[in-house]
Amino acid sequence: MRILFAGTPEFAAVALQHIIQAGHNVCGVLTQPDRPAGRGMKMQASAVKILALHHTIAVEQPRSLRLDGKFPQDALAAQKFLIAAQADVMVVAAYGLILPQWVLDTPRWGCLNIHASLLPRWRGAAPIHRAIEAGDTQTGVVIMQMDAGLDTGDMLLTQKIEIAPHDTTASLHDKLADIGGALIVQTLADTQHNKLVRTPQPVDGITYAHKIEKHEAALDWRLSAKQLAQRVRAFNPFPVASFHANGEVIKAWSAYAIANGDTDTEPTTNAPGTILSADDSGVRIACGEGVLCITELQKAGSKRLPVAEFLRGFDIKVGSVSEVTAP
Questions:
Q1: pLDDT digits over 216-228, tens only?
Q2: How far is Cα 2 from Cα 27, in angstroms, rounded to an integer?
Q3: Are residues 101 and 247 in the same domain?
Q4: What is the pLDDT of residues 29-82, one digit of tens each?
Q5: Do residue 20 and residue 100 come from a single domain?
Q6: pTM for the whole thing?
Q7: The dihedral of CA 50, 52, 58, 60: what is its sign?
Q8: What is the crossing angle of helices 47-54 and 10-21, to 10°?
Q9: Pair (62, 145) in one structural domain
Q10: Domain boundary among 160, 184, 209
Q11: Which helix (H) or strand (E) element contains residue 286?
């Protein structure tokens, strides 16, 4: 089977590796253009491009696939690339560009998408983050036959998993990436043997996982401790939840909620944002409901540290108030 692959980050690279290991002929790869990253802002290739070049697979990096868009020359080059590949199917995973109809129609069996949620819940760009942020207890991977809508195509294969109470976006990403890789290999085998069953998505339960923005990192102490603990987990490793202490922005990498009444030692009537205590077991901050206990922190220019190590070099002022930065 001749397979085109479209993807960009590590999630997609894991799927591509599974496909290569399964012995399929990957005849070309689409991925996002190289972009500046890191402190030196040097141009860096995507994880998918690095893997593709390692396996001597041809790579195309259009800025757009719209023939009538801002970069028609890129789209025309991509169209020539896709037609020449004569692919049976295109596998798409976290690519980052909208596929116009001409792309969906080019491969013999169309385009298959690896989506990291239980559709129709969390259609869109950030399904892993949003599932954790919302407090979902279950998620999974769906292999979908792509159509022109936003993650609206028929479902082909699905695998569910539980979201553990300690899961972050980083840890859940890795679990779902492996599942996605295995599931797409199974889907490709079923495609070859005409064993796939297409199931339309339910019309109920549709939610959208909007792109994560940096401004969302600021913890709003008016929310409940439970909500904020979920955000800390959801925003690890990006954009990383943050708050102000001693006039500095501090990143919160790990935290848990203490509900009102859970312990006799925790004040529960302080103004949201009040720093209640700071010791080797955590930095406790009053919320709109309950208390958030932060256990791993980082200040600008330093490493992320367990709270005991962090407090040796940063004296958080108990009784001060961390400002509410959200609108």
A1: 999 999 999 999 9
A2: 6
A3: no
A4: 999 999 998 777 889 999 999 999 999 999 999 999 999 989 999 999 999 999
A5: yes
A6: 0.93
A7: negative
A8: 30
A9: yes
A10: 209
A11: strand 282-286
Residues 178 and 228 reside in one and the same domain: no
Would residue 319 count as lying in a domain?
no
248 and 106 inside one domain: no
Question: What pLDDT shows up at residue 325?
Answer: 53
pLDDT in tens, 275-301: 999 999 999 999 999 999 999 999 988
Helix pair angle (10-21, 169-192), 10° resolution: 40
Domain with 221 in it: 215-313
> CA 95, CA 221: separation in Å to the nearest integer?
35
Q: Nearest 5°: CA angle at 108, between 74 and 68?
A: 25
Nearest by Cα to 159 from 122, 112, 115, 111: 115
Assigned token pair, 268: 């529960």
Do 197 and 230 have their domain in common?
Answer: no
pLDDT digits (tens, 9 = 90+) for 148-177: 999 999 999 999 999 999 999 999 999 999
The proportion of the chain whose per-residue pLDDT surpasses 90, expressed as a percent, equals: 89
Distance CA 70, CA 263 (A): 59
- Domain-embedded: residue 323: no
Give the CATH number, domain containing residue 34. 3.40.50.170
